[in-house]
Amino acid sequence: MLYSCKLKSVCNLPVTYNKKINTAGTSNADVPLADPGMYQLDITLRRGQSLAARDRGGTSDPYVKFKIGGKEVFRSKIIHKNLNPVWEEKACLLVDHLKEPLYIKVFDYDFGLQDDFMGSAFLDLTQLELNRPTDVTVTLKDPHYPDHDLGIILLSVVLTPKEGEHREVTMLMRKSWKRSSKELSENEVVGSYFSVKSFFWRTQSLCLSDVHRKPHLWRGIVSITLIEGRDLKAMDSNGLSDPYVKFRLGHQKYKSKIMPKTLNPQWREQFDFHLYEERGGIIDITAWDRDAGKRDDFIGRCQIDLSALSREQTHKLELQLEEGEGHLVLLVTLTASATVSISDLSINSLEDPKEREEILKRYSPLRIFHNLKDVGFLQVKVIRAEGLMAADVTGKSDPFCVVELNNDRLLTHTVYKNLNPEWNKVFTFNIKDIHSVLEVTVYDEDRDRSADFLGKVAIPLLSIQNGEQKAYVLKNKQLTGPTKGVIYLEIDVIFNAVKASLRTLIPKEQKYIEEENRLSKQLLLRNFIRMKRCVMVLVNAAYYINSCFDWDSPARSLAAFVLFLFVVWNFELYMIPLVLLLLLTWNYFLIISGKDNRQRDTVVEDMLEDEEEEDDKDDKDSEKKGFINKIYAIQEVCISVQNILDEVASFGERIKNTFNWTIPFLSWLAIVALCAFTVILYFIPLRYIVLVWGINKFTKKLRSPYAIDNNELLDFLSRVPSDVQVVQYQELKPDPSHSPCKRKKNNLG
């Protein structure tokens, strides 16, 4: 049997094994070029001086390549906007002969374009002394323009002959490959191959530079949300563009979707980069106009210096495009990985008495008008998860956790090959709206594709019990039913109630990343039923009043007639909020007395649970039948109707849930507001109130031309959850098998 053994050259260099190493002298000048051996070349790339300017701003973004024998063996990092860069990078190379010089080339980095040549030089390795550090200055030249001064590169090099194991391997391979493969036994060939292979595994680190040795763990994660572009440059003949954006961080790239025929695109795309450098890095961003059949047009560029951004905080950036027109709006968040901890459980703000006192003081009732946008403080301890879904073929998962509060998004590190991960991390957020919902999502990391969803929980801030470690059952993407696993969280919320009340009356913060609406037969039917229920309440009330006019029940009609005369004769405007106040008070006493009249809608709940299954069926049917253009048009109309039905139904449900004490904070706030309105309407004549209201409406734009018109009542109701949201936010009862006590008993058993 014939065996063919092939050994890859280290550092992509050609390796010969039939030459001897001469180490008698200290200089390699005495070594004949016909008889060289293997050498280790240690290079320190120090800095450059007076390099050539290649960018319009009179600077360059230089980096250096080393080549030997026509093959690239080293590439330095990029130093942005600097003609006197300092690299201080080390590379360790194995060289098998010295007749090939070290070729040094310098380039100017241009993202999305071809890099500009900045000069080159050669280093003759035969002129270096062995075992002696040497400082080398090479002058950069352009072969096409030899008279141009392109600056210098400063290096430190050490050339060392390699003996010992290298010589043994050389002799081993020489003996093995001198003989024909027919003369070798199977064990000899295999033994020779694996002896050589094991040696090179031990010495591989000698020839890899720090740049090429990719770390297994990154030092952080950069979460980027591309929101929109504003006033971009028109590149097409119709005065518009088809813009898209490219991002690059080191070797990582991302390309956004194309937005056709617009100068103000709305992308709403979120993606992550891994951060390998301790100090941060530079994200290069370029905007392009898509042109079918020819080269895309360049719109502009900008950069983000990550070293200037604070960690564990979401930054909203509006970047001016250079070499073009317009702005890009982004959200950027830097979070740490396992190598640079976000915050361990042993160190957190609220457990430090001094810090806790400062936080409590910051949100005390006495500091009502100090920074009204800073409503409160949220601390989330992500402890662990248990019994997660297996997403990999090995029966395991690589789970990590994403914690979101509105547009703030932070991530834990990944725990590899584990269904019961422990993160033990603490996240802190500034609360801008006490009615926000904390979303905690668990994903399975996949290096080659997008992460797999494992489970999610949504927790309204007002429902949180401070300092309580709690097991939350993970739900599906729609938050309508359970999925496999639980997550253990401990959450603390500190807020100023007065600031929270004032913020309730202004528009909610827009969430930039939301799932796109899609047509669903089940969702359309559900929204229709919800709207029908709200309408039927009004219809039944109209039937009841009409029955009083028809005297179907004489006793009831007589009572209604007397009540009508009394109310009309004695009516005052303040009685309207007073009646609503009495209704709220009546329902409150029913709740505290145990006679809760809040009924859960089992119809909506059942439909929510079946929605995902029905959608899957719809998707399969649509794939079989296919869609034509008319169907797409009908789909858009159906989605619009579906959303209108949802808005109308949600409006009625929010009014009902306000009086049903679904959110006690909002019901108490309604009581305070109704009391104030009752007193105002009692003591102030209606004409004066209407006069003040009219003057305010007519002069509002004069006093504040750029003020956003809003309705305080609608803003208040937007904070009240609809029936669907009540079901989504409702906590599921954990499986008793996840109880720590029971788990210990099972282990003992």
UniProtKB/TrEMBL annotation:
One Pfam family named in its UniProt record: C2
Classification via InterPro entries: C2_dom, C2_domain_sf, MCTP_C
UniProt superkingdom: Eukaryota
Domain C2: 20-138, 202-319, 353-474
Gene Ontology BP annotations: regulation of neurotransmitter secretion
Mode of membrane association: Multi-pass membrane protein
UniProt entry tagged with the keyword Lipoprotein: no
Compartment(s) of residence: Cytoplasmic vesicle, Secretory vesicle, Synaptic vesicle membrane; Endoplasmic reticulum membrane; Recycling endosome
Bilayer-crossing regions: 558-591, 665-693
One Gene Ontology MF term: calcium ion binding
The keyword Calcium belongs to this UniProt entry's keyword annotation: yes
Keywords, in A-Z order: Calcium, Cytoplasmic vesicle, Endoplasmic reticulum, Endosome, Membrane, Metal-binding, Repeat, Synapse, Transmembrane, Transmembrane helix
GO cellular component, one term: endoplasmic reticulum membrane
Stated family: Belongs to the MCTP family.
Name of the protein this chain belongs to: Multiple C2 and transmembrane domain-containing protein 1
Organism (species): Physeter macrocephalus
This protein's encoding gene: MCTP1
